[in-house]
Amino acid sequence: MLANLSTSITTAVFNILMMRMEGEDGVAAITLLVYTQYLFQAFFTGFSIGVAPVFSYNYGSGNRQRLARLFGISVRSVLAGSAGVFLIMELFAPWMVAVFAPPPSPVYDIAVGGIRIYSTAYLFYGTNVFTRRCLLPFPTENCRRWFLYCGRWYFCCWGFLRFHRCLEPLVSGWRDPLQRR
Q1: What is the mean pLDDT of residues 33-41?
Q2: Contacts from 78-84 at CB under 8 Å and sequence distance 24+?
Q3: Could you tell me if residue 62 is left (phi over 0), alpha (psi between -120 and 50 degrees) or otherwise beta?
Q4: Quick one: pLDDT band at residue 181, thresholds 50, 70, 90?
Q5: What is the average per-residue pLDDT within 170-179?
Q6: What is the domain range of residue 157?
Q7: 114 with 93: CB under 8 angstroms?
Q8: Closest Cα partner for 24 from 92, 150, 89, 111?
Q9: pLDDT digits (tens, 9 = 90+) for 40-54
Q10: How many CA atoms lie within 13 A of 68 on its CB side?
Q11: Overall domain count for the chain
């Protein structure tokens, strides 16, 4: 529930910012970006939910060696998936956007640029989903707190820096002269 609330607030803020910066075309572009985010989010969520019962079984049976091996395989898989999603978004951004917006349009240009910027977040996104979905249910309170603290701290700092970059033109009134008017 809290994740849905934060997603709703973030989407509303992005829509307001894009309406101020780029108008209706910007809102349409951010919508396309959110569609691609949901598509790739499903990959990481599905992997994490699929591997969780195996973690639970090995944890319950006390098989620490297999649990450590499974954790290593899972982390490598998530990191490989993150790199794969990053490459897919970088290489195929024009085709993903062309499904929704025709290529010679302002929405297309804004969305392709936005997807290429946003794709860097997927280098870290998979590990965030994996730790949240799969490792959070472990009964060790210290382990749970550690993962939550590290994840929140890292993504708050990352999000603040990215959000600050979005707000900079609004606060200072500066607009890049090379950008579309």
Answers
A1: 84
A2: 78/44, 78/47, 78/126, 78/127, 78/129, 78/130, 79/126, 79/127, 81/43, 81/44, 81/47, 81/126, 82/44, 82/122, 82/123, 82/124, 82/125, 82/126, 82/127, 83/123
A3: left
A4: very low
A5: 47
A6: 14-172
A7: no
A8: 111
A9: 888 888 888 888 888
A10: 3
A11: 1
Inside any domain, residue 129: yes
**Would the pLDDT of 79 be above 60?**
yes
Is residue 3 scored above 80 in pLDDT? no
Is residue 81 within 8 A of residue 126, CB to CB? The reply is yes
Q: Report yes or no: 134 and 55 within 8 Å, Cβ to Cβ.
A: yes
pLDDT digits (tens, 9 = 90+) for 121-144: 888 888 888 877 776 666 555 555
> Could you tell me if residue 7 is inside a domain?
no
